[in-house]
Every structure is written in C-alpha cells, then in structure tokens.
Amino acid sequence: MQIRFAKTLWGWESHRVEVCRDWILEDGYDGVEAPMWTLGRPDFWRAAGLAVIVQAFPMSPEEVQTEVEKAAAYEPVLINLHVGKDWWPEDRADALLQTVAEADSPAPICVETHRGRLFHHPVDAMKLLARHPEIRLTADLSHWTCVCESMLDDQPEAVAAAVARTAYLHARVGHEEGPQVPDPRAAAWVSHTERFEAIWDRIIAAARGRGESEFWVDPEFGPPNYMWTSPTSGEPLADQREVSRWMKDRLRTRWT
C-alpha cells in the first residue's frame, strides 16, 4: 500500500497559490488539501503533478450534492467533509449522513472527526457509524482528546470503531486540553506523540488489511491560534511548515 501525503493550505491563505505550490513540492508532498475557494483554478495543482483533496462544509442534504458536484472539477482523490453540528438531533444527523452515503461523487467521501460537528465525540461517533455503515472517516483524533480531556485510553471501543472506518488521516498531535501540542518534537510532548502514533499505526494496519492500494495522510498542524504563541509577543512557538514537514518525514519512514 502506498502512503501518500497531502499538505493543507490552512495558514497559508495570505500567500499566492504559486508560492504554496512551490513550498509543497519543495517539502516533498504528493498532494494538497483545501476548500475550493482557497485552491483556485481546478487545473492548477494537477499541472504541477499534485493530487487534490477537496474540503467542503455542507450543512444540509442539498448542500452535500452541490458541493460534491462542484468538487468534481478538481478531479480529487478524496473529498473531506465537515458536516452538521454537535447539537443536532439524531433524525437531522441521520438525514444528512444518508445523503453523504448516497451522493454521486467523483471520489471517495470522508467525514471528519471534528469538534462542533456530528463526529465531535467518540461515543456519538460510534453510534453514528453503527447506524451508517457506508460512512468513512477522516480521523483527526486531536479533537477527541480535547473534547474528552483524555488520551482516549478509556474509550477503546470507540477508538476501535474509528480505526476500522478511517479512510483518511489528519496526523496532528493533540492533548487533553487542546487540539494541538506546541511542538510534537519537544521532549515534554513525546508521550503524546507516541500515543497518537500508536493509534495511527492501527489505522494504517487496518487499511492494509482491507487491501487498499493507497492511503492519504495530512500532517495538519495549524497556524495560530492552534499553534501556541508567546503571551507577550504573539509570535508562534514553532514553525508550522517545519513541524508539518517533520511529521510527514517521520511517518513516511515509519510506514515504509
């Protein structure tokens, strides 16, 4: 199974896409992930030999199909959806997810585990996955460690359910009080990095067990205010591009 790495454009929105493209190529990524309004022209990234993962944020069944149809112009390898709200009742959540499962899509659709969304909490996610066996996840478990104020050791069933259904990975290290450690390379955060890597290893093993030919990973470390900053100067305590590249290189070595 080929492990391929995408780079988010989150945090780089103020730069021209030509600059972002050059950085992504220089840093050795295989693709790019972003919403369509950030990606720009559909053919731009393909011309550079970069695959595209489209992010979209539909809030109704009608928006699901509309966003998927618009994404087709980018010939994406994946579509990553942020869907719904964490306070929605079951019937509303089920209606939206059923539309996702039935969407006529040019690429596999994944639904992200994200705070404030339908898959915001591992127990709720496990229930939704049981009711919607066609749904596949973008696993960003940093949100769950934050929401649950734990490293998820106490929720093995929910973690196992997510591992089995993950088709795309956001490889960001979170902690009990937030979705991003200040620097995963720092000695103070080694145990958190290793805990996440242990779960990510299971996700990769599950994908290999399913016979997947390729699997996409985005080391999606974010800018401030995800990135920790100095309380006096406001300067980031680490470099987003550098940390993301370090995580990509570490995982590429780990899984090859």
Give the C-alpha Rg: 17 Å
**In what range is the share of β-strand residues?**
15-25%
Query: How confident is the prediction overall: mean pLDDT?
Result: 97
In spatial order, strands of the major sheet run 1-2-3-4-5-6-7-8
Largest sheet: number of strands, sense, barrel closure: 8 strands, parallel, barrel
Identify the overall geometry.
Answer: globular
- Structural class of the secondary elements? alpha/beta
Question: Brief description of this entry?
Answer:
By secondary structure, this protein is α/β, with parallel strands linked by helices. Helix content is 41%, strand content 15%. It has helices at residues 17-26, 36-39, 44-47, 61-71, 90-102, 122-131, 142-148, 156-165, 190-209, 240-254, and strands at 2-8, 31-35, 51-56, 78-81, 109-112, 137-139, 166-170, 214-218.
Name the descriptors.
256 residues; alpha/beta; TIM Barrel; 8 strands; globular
Question: What report would you give on this structure?
Answer:
The structure is a single chain. The protein is of the alpha/beta class. It has a single domain, classed as Divalent-metal-dependent TIM barrel enzymes (TIM Barrel, Alpha-Beta Barrel), CATH 3.20.20.150. Helices cover 41% and strands 15% of the residues. Strands 1-2-3-4-5-6-7-8 form an eight-stranded parallel beta barrel, surrounded by four helices. β7 (166-170), α9 (190-209) and β8 form a beta-alpha-beta unit. α4 runs parallel beside α5 (90-102), α6 crosses α8 (156-165) and α8 packs across α9 (190-209). It is globular. The mean pLDDT is 97.
